[in-house]
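Q: My labmate handed me this sequence with no annotations at all. I'd like to see what the chain might look like in three dimensions before we decide whether it's worth expressing. Could you predict it?
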Amino acid sequence: MTFETIRVATDARGVVRLTLALPQKHNALSAQMIGELTDAAETLSSDRAVRVVVLEGEGRSFCAGGDLGWMREQFDADRATRIAEATRLAMMFKALNDIAKPVIGRVHGNAFGGGVGLMSVCDAAIASLDARFGLTETRLGLIPATISPYVVARIGEGRARPLFMSARLFGAEEARSLGLVTAAVAADALDVAVEAEIEPYLAVAPEAAGRAKRLARSLGAPITAATIAATIEQLADCWETDEAREGVGAFFDKREPAWRQ
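A: Here is what I predict for the chain of 261 residues:
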């Protein structure tokens, strides 16, 4: 597989490093990265040689959310185009969530918006203690729509509600207490902790591991096509509000929105 915004590297054990590789943009999700992650997820899921997938980010951040260029395009687009792009993003999260292998997140730096969504589709996430997290969409007058089914599946509705609404930032220890991350460790211990998380999966039957993952997913709240479509419609509705126009416009104008106190 040859990509421009991500890297895929497999070691002799069948452990794949799926790396977001736009460090200069803090690995923000661009239209191209969305497509490449979707393709990679589908390929890795069906590759019998793959035992474990480690999802990570190059540079100072894991993933800072949506790419500014992609956001600008949505700001200027009509409803049909926004729905089409939101659907592409939603299908990317679904493809990653459906990988029939153990997926481990290696999280450092910032993980905002879509970055939290990427963590939530991992089966385990190991974070550096200096990492920062936030569902920051309401600061722009928007909502964390396409990631919401996976975040709620990960931490539960009750814990998700205040994070969805407040857009506040929080640290790795709180992320661990919420269940968003499996473990929070010192930055210099991150790779050792990820390796310790990988190791048990190399001793189990690969297809059985995939079946066990599907079993666990089937027992949770179903994330159906209708669920995904409903979140996309809510996002499209939100984009058409005065608040979204003000919030996103203020962001690009580098000023405070009218509601900021």
